[in-house]
Amino acid sequence: GAVVSQHPSWVICKSGTSVKIECRSLDFQATTMFWYRQFPKQSLMLMATSNEGSKATYEQGVEKDKFLINHASLTLSTLTVTSAHPEDSSFYICSARASEYNEQFFGPGTRLTVL
Amino acid sequence: GNSVTQMEGPVTLSEEAFLTINCTYTATGYPSLFWYVQYPGEGLQLLLKATKADDKGSNKGFEATYRKETTSFHLEKGSVQVSDSAVYFCALRPNQGGKLIFGQGTELSVKP
After folding, report:
1. Measuring CA to CA, which of A18, A87, B47, B79 is 20 to 30 A from B55?
2. Model confidence over A43-94: pLDDT tens digits?
3. Geometric angle at alpha carbon B69, from B64 and B75, rounded to 5°
4. Residue A102 contacts B, CB cutoff 8 Å
5. Cis previous bond, B94, omega within 30
6. Could you tell me if residue B68 is left (phi over 0), alpha (psi between -120 and 50 degrees) or otherwise beta?
7. Is the pLDDT of residue B16 over 90?
8. Nearest to A109 among B34, B42, B89 (CB)
9. What is the C-alpha end-to-end distance of chain B, expressed in Å?
């Protein structure tokens, strides 16, 4: 089946530093990748959609300069949280979709804690 | 607009009890409907889906039927296990290639 991995699975950083989260599709080429944020006991909030080789499309209210998304290849997308602050602490989940699959496959998530 | 509404949790059941988690949706056209499950500390896994009216999705003993007349996609299981404890998300996709729209999630806790 289609597998999506994320790295790291959890990260703790100091306020003001930047953190990069990787999302990889392991056995398929992901033409589109999605980044979600999930607060405790809440639903997933779509942050942005990225297509390989083009700029990400951000949802309303998401700061594109704060959350940098790069979809450089068909198997890798990265989310960089720049100058992280405690309010950025959250569970970040990516998902990937290939043109041959009519569904999205989700990664296991990355727990970010900003001190 | 498009939206998904789920019954509020948490839902607490004893092992082998019957489960129903209600899900209703609002959408134009003919969306695809999904149930995802999230186990503690993990990402989402697709549980089942249905792409047109009257389709029944099923997996691991869970079932849901796409009811266009009531705009519903209720999740059911005849006999739950402790291992089914998780958060369940109902979702719709308005059209092929469109974005998934999630309900708020329903936490299920199954006690031995």
Report:
1. B79
2. 889 999 998 888 899 999 999 999 999 988 899 999 999 999 999 999 999 9
3. 15
4. yes
5. no
6. alpha
7. yes
8. B42
9. 41
Q: Rounded to a whole number, what is the distance in Å from the CA of A73 to chain B's nearest CA?
A: 19
Sequence-separated (6 or more) residues with CB below 8 Å from residue B105: A41, A42, A43, B6, B9, B38, B87, B88, B89
A46, A105, A108: residue with CB nearest B42: A108
Give the distance between the most distant pair of CA atoms in chain A.
Answer: 42
> What residues pair up with A25 in beta bridges, in sequence order?
A4
Task: Determine the residue of chain B that is closest to A47 in CA distance.
Answer: B99
- B64 pairs with which residues across the strands? B57, B75
Task: Report the residue from B89, B100, B104 with minimal CB separation from A104.
Answer: B100
- Residue A77 token pair: 């997308």
Q: A113 pLDDT band (50/70/90 cuts)?
A: very high
Terminal alpha carbon distance of chain A: 37
Contacts for A37 with CB less than 8 Å, ≥ 6 apart: A44, A45, A47, A90, A91, A92, A93
B80-111, pLDDT tens digit by residue?
999 999 999 999 998 776 789 999 999 999 99
Contacts of A103 in chain B (CB under 8 A): 34, 46, 49
A104 is written with which tokens? 């999205």
